Amino acid sequence: MTKPIKVHLCPAGPNPWKVVLLLEELGVPYEINSFPFQEVKSKPYTDINPNGRVPAIEDRNTGITLWETGAIILYLIEQYDITHKLSYPDIKQRHLTNQYLFFQVSGQGPYFGQAGWFNVLHSEKVQSAIDRYNSELKRVLGVLDTVLEGKEWLVGDKITYADLSFATWNDRIDSLILCAPEDKFKGFLNVQAWHERMISRPSWATCMDKRAQLMDEQGLLPNGMPKGVSNMEEYEAKMKADAEASK
């Protein structure tokens, strides 16, 4: 019997849920170790991931511990997608799928994250940075919209791990660039239809229900900030004060 894979995460960020979504789709047992953001840069978590980022996984079936979502996703597909539910066995489609996964981890994630930082979390409004990363976010959407023209999925005729890897960041575009929810895919109809196909899947609802529960347990707002905190500077001050008070 397969032992549950332990997924270490802070619930607010989008990256951990890429991994949980994949596990749900594959039907692989897992258990979540959810902890507050202020613990991500300290032991015992940094013994698992010295980079101090989430997620990380521990697979007791193989003795493998991994961090970095791209590496985790490729591992889970190789180890557990033996029927190729979310992947392809042939060399061409396999490498095309990896191409889009790497576009997600090197393009979408960093640019979308910086857009969220400068629009929402940074204590000072730096308009040049806001303009740059909002523009890059839309450029990435434009690339995806072009690729998806006349297609339902990025590669071949079925959903793959590459498609799923984009869902969690795309879902929060409105909170990253502070637009109306109905406008987050404005001008990118192919991306919108693709995203709606993914979030209509049962795996998505399960992940978002788990995220909402864990966020509520930690008293977090949808943007990841604690209630009553509006930017990262205030959050860091609060974490410092809480640490002092606990001594």
Automatic annotation (TrEMBL):
Q: What is its EC number?
A: 2.5.1.18
The keyword Transferase is annotated on this UniProt entry: yes
EC main class here is transferase
Reaction equations catalysed:
RX + glutathione = an S-substituted glutathione + a halide anion + H(+)
Similarity comment:
Belongs to the GST superfamily.
Q: Which Pfam families does the protein's record reference?
A: GST_C (PF00043), GST_N_2 (PF13409)
The scientific name of the source species is Lophiotrema nucula
Protein's name according to its UniProt entry: glutathione transferase
What residue intervals traverse the membrane?
A: none
Keywords of the record: Transferase
Annotated PROSITE patterns: GST_CTER, GST_NTER
So which domain of life are we looking at? Eukaryota
Q: InterPro entries this protein is in? A: Glutathione-S-Trfase_C-like, Glutathione-S-Trfase_C_sf, Glutathione_S-Trfase, Glutathione_S-Trfase_N, GST_C, Thioredoxin-like_sf
Start and end residues of each GST C-terminal domain: 90-218
List the Gene3D superfamilies hit by this protein, alphabetically.
Answer: 1.20.1050.10, Glutaredoxin
Q: Which GO terms describe its molecular function?
A: glutathione transferase activity
Q: Where do the GST N-terminal domain residues begin and end?
A: 3-84
